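Title: [Solved] Proline dehydrogenase 3D structure

Original question kept below for reference.
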Amino acid sequence: MATRVIPPRILRKLRYNTATKPLNSTHPFPLSPTLSSPTILDQKPPSSTILRPAVDPSALNFHDVEKLFSYVPTSKLLRSTTVLYATGVESMVDLGMWIMRSKFMEVEGARDIILATIRGSFYDHFCAGEDAISASKSIGSLNDAGIRGMLVYGVEDAHDNDGCDRNLKGFLHTIDVSKSLPPSSVSFEIVKITAICPMKLLERMSDLLRWEQQDPSFILPWKQESFPIFSESSPLYHTRKRPEPLTSEEENDLELANKRLFELCQKCVQANIPLLVDAEHTEVQPAIDYFTYSSAIMHNKVENPIVFGTMQTYLKDAKERLLLVTNAADKMGIPMGFKLVRGAYMSMERRVASSLGYASPIHDTIHDTHKCFNDCSTFMLEKIANGPGGVVLATHNIESGKLAAAKAHELGIGKVNHKLEFAQLYGMSEALSFGLSNAGFQVSKYMPFGPIETVMPYLLRRAEENRGMLAASGFDRQLMRQELGRRLKTAIF
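Solution (posted by the thread starter after getting help):
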């Protein structure tokens, strides 16, 4: 009988046997299928070592490209390098966005050619699949490399209850698919409140919440218990006059939105997978924070939270709000989890503020944004090291990754518990993802899925908002090029 090699993901599962979970996992762990031998250029080079230290930031090594990309097939490396080069040229991004928004998309033959081109390049690179089943296969491939997935049902804003109900079914189906996957291979389910609550209602609720912040005597009869939503420096300029109370129809819509989010939270509790609420632009973020915090108070009953919020650290008030929320949660005995990101609506925020005659809510310099992200990361790491809660550090910045890894090592996070998760977008910052994973940290990829027509708004928004980051992806491209050269030499010589 041939010797059975233990798959790396099982070894990592043993190493992560205290992974952050609100409940005990009970589903079975299926065995990996046997793979046929690929050609020499398409082989995944063997990892130089199987058993790695629990967490060792000194192992955050970006020089050993063979080890860094040991789980990435050559065909995928070639495609990734090509796509990242293309997206690194801003004129090509502009051209692609123009084509996707042009009248060519209304011409049947041209539309088919455009979609086929997008599907074979940008879509396959940045999206996990056309449905939850195909996305689960992408997660399986990542899981073999020791990286987890955040499943993101790729829908954008909903404008009526019918759309919200359709989106809810998609989110619930995503959870069902996640339950069928190996334990811990899916780290979070992602929900966009804008997909399960009509946008107009979120705008109205945000106006009312902002006015309440300015006038504490202003009563909101529909408001449930929540944490602080604003700080003293939070932007309130969107609401210029006293808003009218919610109508009976709007209150009914709010009740339906509450029921949808409650159903999602309950399903996540049963599936043993935390729910992470995505952030949006400041026009509707107050209502999103309200939904997040009221749900957290309702569902975060044990040490590890089931509902996570998102804090965008490119906002000047981010650190103040983070302190206010965590202090309020501590006083109530509610464990709180946050995903920290820099932010994705910079151009929109600056444009809206300028049109209303106000200063931008975004930090004045990129240095200030980096400092805010790193300060908030340090604060959350120290917090979870000494108590309940959790943090997802969603960053593509190498220096932020190094700083957080060193701080986590200093605090002992990762050796005793796993309340820390690093995260990057699917198809981006592969070197950072694999480097952190090789160093022993839990790492997830944010993995949107859905039919290409449905995910198109996501791709357009990512292209527009992340053009600077895509143009700066030279670090990944350089390392991938080095590894491709190494593999070519190995194949020839």
